[in-house]
């Protein structure tokens, strides 16, 4: 192929990918929105559509025991472990059309390119579309990549969604057998690597004016619930000097989280706050609020939490309020494999793109996959850094770069 023919083919791949992403967006549990919750009828229909595309591309494709779509494009060496490309097809409620689906559709484009050229790599190339990444329906991922990693949450069967549908019933309605979902595990014969292209879900690539970045790590996160107990009282009769106002103390705490996070290598957010008794003429007696702290380095996260805690103690003493601090969840950071980070960065360099490394502040299937195989992620610029929203948008030219990078990286590793 000449250079201009190659350019033409790459543009056609990207425009087909964009059309497929639009097509997938039409599979929804809620008309007028994009909602494909784990194990829902819309996800089942999207899975069926993808199965058809995979088979048309010459892949052997199936739904695994946990509801994930898996396609395989054979390699030349039967003994070589597959390179696994993937992402997820489930979405949050009223989500966007690129979070998850982009990585699956880009992977499909990579295999279609190989098939069209009659190219077989030494390693097989597999594509997986996880069925349960967002965790929207059952308070966290219950199957999906954790099933593939062979680490199901022990309580998954007893989880119930907002409509009262139990996880077992949902899995059964999806056409799966709850007793065999564990057989989706690849822990016994893991792939050689797991590669995922995903929208960035943040504004860094846009700010750097570059289409792609290489992920160094998926941030660890600590979530806490803080309760401050002061004294409720009449807003008219209690003099200012005698008050123990829980909301005033909590407000200083919120500002402290923001101030301390700004000088750390972490991000810190107070996103939930509840005031009691929550009345216009009553001094707040109790306030509960959340804290979410994330960092690619666990030590930095621990250090920031220590500083926040110390600042809170000082604030509580000054306002004569009681403070209770409860960690509600904690996950360690997951590093992408150094050799894959370098391979991805070399791929971008080969394409004439800058070496852009960044950490992922959001969780991804790579967390589970990292327990059985080395992982790498490429981030693709998205408009305004917006995600989990119908306004999610990517540029077709960036998608062209994304497919090209994923194809080159796959060939680099599987060739
Ligand atoms: Zn995602």
UniProtKB/TrEMBL annotation:
Q: Which residues bind Zn(2+) 1?
A: 88, 99, 198
- Identify which top EC class this enzyme belongs to: hydrolase
Q: What is its EC number?
A: 3.5.3.9
Record PROSITE patterns: ARGE_DAPE_CPG2_1
What positions belong to coiled-coil segments? none
Cofactors that this protein relies on: Mn(2+); Zn(2+)
User: Could you describe the subunit structure of this protein?
Assistant: Homodimer.
Q: Which family does it belong to?
A: Belongs to the peptidase M20 family.
List the protein's name: Allantoate deiminase
Q: Which organism was this protein described from?
A: Kaistia hirudinis
């Amino acid at each position: 192929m000449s250079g201009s023919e190659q350019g033409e083919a790459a543009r056609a791949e990207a425009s087909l990918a964009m059309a497929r992403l639009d097509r997938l967006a039409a599979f929804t549990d809620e008309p007028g929105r994009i909602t494909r919750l784990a194990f829902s009828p819309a996800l089942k229909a999207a899975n069926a559509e993808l199965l058809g595309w995979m088979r048309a591309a010459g892949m052997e494709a199936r739904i695994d025991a946990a509801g994930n779509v898996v396609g395989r494009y054979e390699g030349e060496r039967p003994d070589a472990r597959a390179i696994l490309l993937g992402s997820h097809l489930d979405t949050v409620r009223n989500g966007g059309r690129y979070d998850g689906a982009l990585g699956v559709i880009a992977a499909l484009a990579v295999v279609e390119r190989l098939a069209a050229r009659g190219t077989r790599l030494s390693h097989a190339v597999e594509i997986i579309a996880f069925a349960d990444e967002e965790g929207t329906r059952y308070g966290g991922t219950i199957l999906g990549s954790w099933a593939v990693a062979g680490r199901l949450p022990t309580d998954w069967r007893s989880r119930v969604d907002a409509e009262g549908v139990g996880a077992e019933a949902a899995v059964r309605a999806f056409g799966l057998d709850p007793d065999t979902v564990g057989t989706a595990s690849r822990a016994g014969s893991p792939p050689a690597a797991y590669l995922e292209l995903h929208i960035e879900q943040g504004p860094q690539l846009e700010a750097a004016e570059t289409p792609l970045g290489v992920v160094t790590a998926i941030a660890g996160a600590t979530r806490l619930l803080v309760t401050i107990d002061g004294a409720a009282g009449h807003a008219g009769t209690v003099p200012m000097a005698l008050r123990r106002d829980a909301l005033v103390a909590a407000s200083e705490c919120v500002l402290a989280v923001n101030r301390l996070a700004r000088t750390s290598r972490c991000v810190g957010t107070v996103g939930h706050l509840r005031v009691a008794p929550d009345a216009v003429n009553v001094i707040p007696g109790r306030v509960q609020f959340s804290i979410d702290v994330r960092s690619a380095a666990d030590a930095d996260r621990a250090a920031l939490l220590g500083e926040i805690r110390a600042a809170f103690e000082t604030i509580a003493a000054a306002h004569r309020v009681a403070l209770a601090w409860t960690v509600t969840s904690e996950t360690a950071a997951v590093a992408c494999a150094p050799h894959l980070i370098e391979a991805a960065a070399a791929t971008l360099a080969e394409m004439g793109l800058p070496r852009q490394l960044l950490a992922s502040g959001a969780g991804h299937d790579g967390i589970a996959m990292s327990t059985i195989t080395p992982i790498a992620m490429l981030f693709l610029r998205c408009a305004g850094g917006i995600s989990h929203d119908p306004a999610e948008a990517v540029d077709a030219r960036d998608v062209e770069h994304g497919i090209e990078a994923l194809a080159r990286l796959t060939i680099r590793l599987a060739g």
